[in-house]
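1st attempt posting a full record on here, be nice pls
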Amino acid sequence: TIAVSNNQSTCGSSGINAEYGGPFFQSNTPYPTPDQVITMKTTLICALLLICTIKVALSVPSIPLHTVRHPVNIISQDEPKRTRIEPKTPLKPTKRDYLEASMPVVGQYIEYAIDIELGTPAQTFRVQADTGSALLAIPFTPCSNCDQGTPNSYYNAALSSSSSPINCNDPLQCTETQCYSIAANTCGFVVTYGDGSGIKGVLENDVMTLGNLKANVVFGGIQDQKTKDFEAPFADGIMGLAFNSTSVTCSPNCVTPALDELFTANKLPNIFAMLLDDTEGTMTLGGIDNSLYTGNLVYVDVIDPSVYNINFYGLQVGGKTVYSNDPTTDYTAIVDSGTSTLAVPNVMFKAIVNYFQDTYCDLDGVCGAKNLFTGYCIDKPDYSKWPTITVLLDRGIGLVIPPSNYLAPFVSNGQTQYCLTMSGISNTIPFAILGDTIMRGNYVVFDRVHNQVGWAVAVGSENAITGASNPSYMVSASMLVFMTFVGLIVNLL
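the predicted structure (as tokens):
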């Protein structure tokens, strides 16, 4: 049944029947003919399709991801094409609050950050976009051991009319009462990350803005850092994008992640996507931007709904399987935008090294005592001679990355060298880390509704995805619109 206004329409010819209103009915025709009804339904369907399409497009905000390159001290060695990263460089190791503190993760060379606002009036901060943790944390005024570089890098609660501390007796946010000694009766947090760094401070509530989205969020106000340069000077803080799970959001007090609050307050689907490249990136919230990728999105299941932990079946070099893995008994993998490398257990890394040195020893930096795999860097390589690396996932899916992803430029004092962005980690750690080396050049969808991670090749990327003949069982935004209107057509006709 279609309800039509009794007011005379301004569209169509004169003499429109006011009882029905609209360009389909002539004044001498008290009831519409079947053909006129079909025309009216078709027009209504088209109008609804246009409105819904616009609504879907507007409901998927895009946030720019800013790249920040870390400086590297490159020390020349005896051989002109062999340089090594100085062990005490300003490279910032990856921070993970769910990893063991002793985990030797290699340093980052690119960080991806987003700009947010906190407070009323707004205070602007740049935070690392991190799918490997869940807490939003910003240096707080005062901070006893922070070295952010500029006063604007600190959140000042006194300057915000909308701020309020989380008290220790708060039944929702301070479930495991942990008062912080610096601020009496204020709920606190303590986080230790995988590189041994750590932060602690108070929990604060305030208005947050990300793009055109706003929400009241609880975040960590850092008042003490184990190291002075927690994220500075490349970013002010960190925004965790992992699930709302007690294993990553309780430290020890449980906090709903800022991302979840943004989705809820703005009534967006609990899904976001990231596109990382060498110069910039894009983060889409509440949906999928089909213009950013080619081919099909293919999905793998998240097996641990706290972080983006997925099944991992092995590695290939140049299409040759060098390590087969059984995720039920061996290792899984975590998709982590906050790690700049592909970090795999040492047993896998050794298999990669052995295959390279057996097959590609003629390539610069592969063999010899001073090689890429022991931390040395080389002059710009001829990428056409280097093999691809493939990460094998569920459903026969293979993520193929070109050599430009794993041989990346490091610049210092005008000197550019190319270093390996793969590393080995302890075999006792039960997962590999699919960091930016794997994510870069892919459009990666974090579907928290269906607990899955989607992959597609970004527009203009040299990446590839193999074994992806069976696309996702999850419908995309455009397919959802199409299916919705198929239903409307069936109901109306």
